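Q: Could you fold this chain for me?
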Amino acid sequence: MSARLAALVPATLLGRPRDAPPRAGAVSWDAGRAELRCGVEELSPTVDPCLEVDGVDWVLDEHLLNAESTARLTTYGRRPATQFTYHGPREDVGGYLVSLRNAVRTAPGTGHKCLSLDEVG
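A: Sure. Below is the predicted structure, expressed as structure tokens.
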């Protein structure tokens, strides 16, 4: 995990404490229920759902969500890419992504943005 990103990662995430010590390239909260990893492989264009949260595009791994009820979202259009994985109630994910936005925005944008099907067709 880059020093800039690590410096901006919150000590608590929606009231849940950060785990110590962090793994190389990752930070987790709430005994590993929420994890942020930096330097993951950038995504190619995909039909998986994409959402924009406060200026950061995230792609949801729909297969993993359906198979294991685990939310895994990867930034789109940022280098290096960052991945957030959460095991818990789906309604918490949006709040987590908002809380992480300042840290994730430290990764430079590549100019690629998520597009809706209306914009493609």
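A (continued): Residues 93-104 form the longest helix (12 residues).
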